[in-house]
């Protein structure tokens, strides 16, 4: 292979997204002192470009503009050019996305923002084409216009920057509600969600449709609390339609990022670690409630995909798989009818194509190729094809296996193999919960290996780091890194009952409160008190693709408060709930995870303590009954009867003993304890109360 014509400073970065731009003719800098000092020294504005490796339109803009030598020449002449991976630097992404939304009324990636040498934004947008089209000005016109404004209308530019900075610094100013916390907000939130629900295809209208896992988790809690059947039906319809559509990889397992249409057929094909972690959690909840086998199957297929393709040998979880392969979005995942016939033979291909909607015309753009999806139940297709359901199932199982093996020979989408602490925390929690709910030891083993990996590689001198790649860990951890990992460690404790995980969760919670708390106005900052000084110190309040750092912090602090008896955890959680009480009522879709935490706070959570040898079949039966029961507001502790250390650490285990020599379960709530039980039948009745 010939040497690349251009190489810039991004060649030294670990981020796969930044390295993708290392051979652009643009004189890219990573965010850092070198670039920021140069902008001041040269009195040049900064062109800040933010994206991520699985972003299709980021690739398009790179190919059209950043690989174009003429456009690159303009960028290099008039600007100091900085490229940022939003997944590594969500602090920068949050600040400048807020600015772009103020300027344009919308946001997204790639994000293109022009800053003064003091890092203050004055103009920005998202994708710009290389010439005028789509009703947008071409990127060269934008570059020349911004450069001219900075040179000839400097005071106007600086005034705009000052106004934007004032708004950015005021954006997270929130005052605690004077009204007390009550459950009245739940009914209001339910009405908002139900008014937007698509009863034909599931999910929230209109397209494009995102998984919205947190909103659906809230709906399940609302069903459990109020017995509103339609709330549960909304979740079941969404999960069914999503898992039967092209949103779900019918061959390899795992969910794509979102659907471009209303019926979950055509996705943007990237797969994100966090989506799959959150959807596994939701599917497990649905499985606990309904016992439907296909929820379990979808969980297993999704986690098997993660362990097969998104897990490093050391146990860390990779971030994303790209939408594109060979420069074409979705190429890896779609099939022509002729390909299926060649691989399966005429008879099986006929059955497979009918069930998975593979046609001559195709269902993906103008490619004459099809995204596998399920349009009709197995029984209907078997009847239409005049075969037994057993024969059809055999053909489908064989076909999936053969097509998957054939697909493995294709050029795969790009893999962003950096390992982010926050996203690893999400998958850690989901694996631990899946291991407990499904009784699957290999998921527990993967969760333990992941926790050990994170603590060995991303926890240094009592502080978390953000990202790990190629043996290098770097960047200060953010609030979400702490809160998501704490959630994972608490879930791992409640699965394995090894106190080391609870101790580490509490240790991290103490650091989180010390380093991220706003002692004047309440809440938790997104960055720690020793973080790099930026133009604004934001707070992460709103759920986006992942739950907000503050909402997860509230949830884990409440759980830790019950588990450890430390009052200040509950006090801090209550402070944040009061701070965001009005926001939850006005914008429930932005605070779904916090609504779930509020439900825990307002409920009398079940405090379940099990005493028995964890290897004893009788103990395991009791634990299995607890884990397969949907109990959204509970904590679970367990100890071997001879373990005196656990009860020193965990108040809920003190003075708990075997009952007549048998493993026993103690359930307390609302400061009242019930009689301990030793049989699954007695336990089942107790948990239903």
Layout of strands and helices, then pairs:
Layout: H1 16-20, E1 28-30, H2 33-42, E2 46-51, H3 56-66, H4 69-78, E3 80-85, H5 90-104, E4 111-115, E5 121-125, H6 139-152, H7 154-170, H8 184-195, H9 213-226, H10 229-244, E6 258-259, E7 267-268, E8 271-272, H11 273-290, H12 293-309, E9 320-321, E10 324-325, E11 328-329, H13 337-344, H14 346-356, H15 378-384, H16 389-407, E12 415-416, E13 419-420, H17 421-438, H18 441-457, E14 459-460, E15 463-469, E16 472-476, H19 479-496, H20 499-516, H21 549-564, H22 567-579, H23 581-586, H24 592-602, E17 606-611, H25 617-627, E18 634-639, H26 644-649, E19 664-669, E20 672-673, H27 680-688
Parallel strand pairs: 1-3, 2-3, 17-18
Antiparallel strand pairs: 2-4, 4-5, 6-7, 8-9, 9-12, 10-11, 13-15, 14-15, 15-16, 17-19, 19-20
Helix pairs in contact: 4-6, 6-7, 9-10, 9-11, 9-24, 11-12, 11-17, 13-14, 14-16, 15-16, 17-18, 17-19, 18-19, 19-20, 19-21, 21-22, 21-24, 25-27
